[in-house]
Write a structure and sequence with these properties.
The chain is α+β, with helices and mostly antiparallel strands. Helix content is about 20%, strand content about 35%. It contains 2 helices and 6 strands. The chain is extended and about 85 Å long.
Amino acid sequence: MKLFITLSTLLATVLAIEYHHVEHKHIPIVHSESYHGHDGSFKHGYESGNGISVQEQGYVKNAGAGKDHETNVVHGSYSYVDPHGVPVSVSYTADENGFQAHGSHIPTPPPLPKALVEAYAKAGSHPDSHSEVQHYSKPDLYKHY
């Protein structure tokens, strides 16, 4: 019985190793470009043999205006075909407004209800009547003798 369990375990191990063996094939890069400018600008891109495509370029906005006014700006995109054969494409921008990606498969929030948009507009059009700081006297909780 022990021999049977040992042989069964050995056979299961060998089958598991054979089953999980994945053949990795080489995917060639069919196009590649790279540029780095002395002013901080750059451009990169490549396309692989399996249809993956990546492009990115960037620069320093307001270069020389001081660190408080300079901003790194990057524009790029990538595309590939998902495992179900559906093409996926994403374009993005990163700048002083943050990272913003766009693609048909990226979920977007539903539009705001019209009543809420109108309420925000109405609230924004009236001056804030509570902008004055109100000072309250501190209650005298302790008697001083």
